[in-house]
Amino acid sequence: MSVKDRLKRLTGEAPAQEQDISNKEIITELRRKIDALMEPRERIERRPVATYREAPPGLEDLITGEEVENSCGRFYFSRNLFRGTAAHGNHRIDTLARTDMDAAALLAGSSELARMNMADALFLDTETTGLAGGTGTFAFLIGLGWFEGDDFIVCQLFARDFSEEAAMLAFLREIALEKRFLVTFNGRAYDMNLLAARFVLNRMSDPFTGMPHLDLLHPSRRLLGHRLENSRLVTLEACVLGVERHGDVPGFEIPQRYFDWLRRRDARLMEDVFEHNRLDIISMAALVKHLAGILCASGEMMSVHPADLLAAARLHHERGNTGTARHFFGCVMASENRLIARDARMALSLMHKRSGLWEEAVKLWEDMAREDPCDLFAVEELAKFLEHRAHDYLRAIDLVERVLSRPLAQRDALEYRLRRLRAKAGSSGHE
Which CATH code of 3.40.50.1000, 3.30.559.30, 3.30.420.10, 3.90.420.10 fits the domain covering 59-295? Predict the structure, then answer.
């Protein structure tokens, strides 16, 4: 199908009979149809842009920093120091520097982190020209954070236009090569892929290749997502870290802010973007501390949400920390929340079952069945034990019959088990 016929389909015109016309007429006709296609887009209202009578302030007027020059060019550099005595939400900065590294290694799924400390971490977050990714997306602001003693440093690299990208990436490489592991929030899926592409386009090697990486999105979902509306960083800040943002620029507005900056060079457009990025960096450090605190909670368990402890117990179990998982499950069983306590009992009983600790498992099932005679999980597990391990068919039959005598929504599995138990009891001479 020719370009002309495709244009006719897009504009809804019926195909006309081919005519013998010159190339000039064909080109004129194509231009007319392209204009017709573009006209609806031009009618879309653009977002109003604020106008100011006075000359726009420069970056140095509103954002503390300076121009940095290296062999690849220039860019704008901002550095902020947060003293250890300062607070970020529920945490003091100096406590963030003393995060348990065994717990951090568990969060990352990398044993290498256990041999490091928080001074080895590089926190990273980018602000870009779009969220779709791809080689056309440009990281115009790269936020970095690290600990120096008890203090926390946030450095921000800003490309004032597209020509400053190479200088900014070269500076980023220098900093990254001094650190031993990376911390991001959803960076594994977005930031790092984007930066890897930009390094390639600028003919630079990627300093993050092979670097241990703790991405906080997945462990946040594992440990906290069960009780939150979503696992966005701003939600975690408000509901878990005790951080409130006032007048924060929405993330979806940030790309347009940069495009407006390129046209007008008004630092007021970028001031809130720098602050947004700065808060993201500090909140990541606080989130590492909070998540690690859940995983290594001991005497502080009473201050941790029981559902978070339950999630931590499951994570410990999955990672092979059997003793710690049992301890956590045992603590959650004492929770006043009966549903959470029951889930902990279920999980712990199945751990005992898989380990062959039948006495401990049976005790938990009997306690659950005693408290709630219609607890199908406990009754079925007890019936399985009596049938397959103890071979006490009569006791199993009595247990199942007592439960079936009550109103139950789900009866099929128990009725099938009862028929099988009766058959086994009959064949063994226990009528």
Answer: 3.30.420.10
- pLDDT, one tens digit per residue, over 354-386 is 999 999 999 999 999 999 988 999 999 999 999
* pTM beyond 0.90: no
For the chain, what are the domain ranges?
A: 3-42, 59-295, 299-355, 359-431
**126, 194 Cβ separation under 8 angstroms:** yes
Structure tokens at 310: 């339950």
| Measured distance CA(392)–CA(374) in Å, rounded | 21
Q: Report pLDDT for 409.
A: 75
CA-closest candidate to residue 280, choices 256, 252, 257, 248: 248
Q: Is the pLDDT of residue 155 over 80?
A: yes
- Give the count of beta carbons closer than 10 Å to the beta carbon of residue 332: 27
Provide DSSP, 327-376.
HHHHHHTT-S-HHHHHHHHHHHHHHHHHTT-HHHHHHHHHHHHHH-TT-H
**What pLDDT is stored for residue 410 in this prediction?**
81
Write down the pLDDT at residue 274: 98
Beta-carbon contacts of 331 under 8 Å, excluding residues fewer than 6 positions away, are 301, 309
Q: Is 16 exposed, middle or buried (0-12, 13-18, 19+ CB in 10 A)?
A: exposed
Stronger pLDDT, 418 or 81, i.e. the higher one: 81
Q: Going by C-beta distance under 8 Å and a sequence separation of 6 or more, which residues neighbour residue 343?
A: 310, 332
Amino acid at position 349, single letter: S
In whole angstroms, give the CA distance from residue 387 to residue 389.
6
Residue whose tokens read 């607070």: 87
d(CA 362, CA 342): 15
- What beta strand segments (E) does 64-184 contain? 66-70, 73-82, 87-88, 91-92, 121-128, 139-148, 151-158, 181-184
User: In Å, how far are 231, 239, 285, 311, 328 from 228, measured between CA atoms?
Assistant: 7, 8, 20, 13, 21
Give yes or no for residue 118 having a pLDDT over 90: yes
> Residue type at 400?
V
Q: Determine how many CB atoms are found less than 10 A away from the CB of residue 346.
A: 18
Q: pLDDT of 173-226, one tens digit each?
A: 999 999 999 999 999 999 999 999 999 999 999 999 999 999 999 999 999 999
**∠ CA 394-400-406 to the nearest 5 degrees?**
140
pLDDT of residue 18: 45
Residue 224 tokens read as: 């906290």
CA–CA separation, 104 and 293 (whole Å): 9
